[in-house]
Amino acid sequence: MLPFYRRLFGYHAWANRATVGSLRQGPVSERARQLMAHVAATERLWYDRLLNRPQSLPVWPDFTLDRSDTLATEMAAAWRAYLAELTSAALREERRYTNTKGERWTNTVGDVLTHVILHSAYHRGQIAAEVRAQGGEPAYTDFIEAVRRGNVGET
């Protein structure tokens, strides 16, 4: 499973870069900017939870596109380092946390990693719709496209 997660996070980093690239082509709607900030900030939130650290950023920060891009790049490096050290057994370990509604939850590391990928893909789709609504050309961030273009490593 670890090679699979490493591959997914490689795709994820590429898709975030491509999405920011499409936003840089402009015009950027306020909603698209907010969604990209949310994607980057919630990655940090889940990373903090995996490391049993307090939440360091709000879920919906008011970031510029540059700040979101910087954070997404930082998180790509953080995920690479985290996954390089992670063991297969650790994927089944549980993490206890309190969500932003004050509810206590427990999830496995593997479930959190899967959530990060799917949550971000969902919001990148919303960003693509916003870009198209503004008359722009959204990034083509389908996983298979990343594989076809050599932007995802092998398992």
Q: Can you give a write-up of this model?
A:
By secondary structure, this protein is mainly alpha-helical. It is 62% helix and 6% strand. It contains five helices and two strands. It is globular. The model has no long low-confidence stretch (mean pLDDT 96).
- N→C terminal distance: 9 Å
Helix content: 55-70%
Stretches with pLDDT under 50, minimum 5 residues? none
Main sheet properties: 2 strands, antiparallel
- Could you name the CATH homologous superfamily? dinb family like domain
> What would you call the structural class?
mainly alpha
The CATH architecture assignment turns out to be: Up-down Bundle
Sheet with the most strands: spatial strand order = 1-2
Report the order of strands and helices. HHHEEHH
**Mean of residue pLDDT?**
96
Give me the CATH fold name. Four Helix Bundle (Hemerythrin (Met), subunit A)
Task: State the name of the first-level CATH class.
Answer: Mainly Alpha
Query: How many domains in all?
Result: 1
Count, helices: 5
Q: From the alpha carbons, calculate the radius of gyration and give it in angstroms.
A: 15 Å
> Strand content of the residues, in percent?
5-15%
Overall outline: globular
* Strands, total number: 2
